Amino acid sequence: MKIIFKLCLFLFVSSNSFAQSESVQKDQGTFIKNENQPDTAQYATLYLYRPKNAVGGLVGYNIKLDDSTICKLKNGRKFSFRLYKEGSMKIWPSTEDKKINITVKYGEEYFVKFAMVSGLVGAHPELNLINSEQGREEFDALQDKKAKADLKE
Fold first, then answer.
1. How far is the C-alpha of 1 from the C-alpha of 19, rounded, in Å?
2. In sequence order, what DSSP letters do the residues of 76-92 get, joined into one string?
3. Which residues form the signal peptide (predicted)?
């Protein structure tokens, strides 16, 4: 609850800092119109998920939306959030510098898959924006209880 409150406060204070860009990655098929939402929906839906994997399975990562922590993503967990703000946003694990950018538009769904990748020094986290068809299938396949949240201005 504290996380949601902090995120709501952050979004309210920084509401003018989000760019209103139209550069959504339509060509890559990274989003679709959410058929469960009416055309007049005043939110987008963000799905974060981490399929079970033995690599780095004991470690949980704080996931940030811009500079606010929105959840702790552990092995085999998934979360869905309603985003009530349009514009450019960054999603990233708090321990990494690599960020993915999304341009949020109301009525759309965004699937972000968290994976652990083996490297020379050890495993490191990686976030990927997944196309909606694959993302929906993988998200629904996880048996975790979903945590839902409304991220308001």
1. 27
2. T-EEEEEE---EEEEEE
3. 1-19
Model confidence over 114-146: pLDDT tens digits? 988 887 777 888 899 999 999 999 999 998 655
36-72 burial by CB neighbour count: b if 16+ within 10 A, else e? ebeeeeebbbbbbbbbeeeebeeeebebbbbebebbe
| Strand (E) or helix (H) holding 70 | strand 68-73
Domain borders along the chain are: 2-13+30-151
Write out the H or E segment, with its range, that includes residue 13: helix 2-13
Q: CA separation (Å) from 17 to 9, 13, 88?
A: 14, 9, 9
Residues 14, 94: Cα–Cα separation, whole Å = 19
Tokens read off for 37: 């939402």
pTM of the predicted protein model: 0.69
CA atoms within 13 A on the CB side of 118: 3
Q: Exposed, middle or buried, 131 (CB in 10 Å: 0-12/13-18/19+)? A: middle
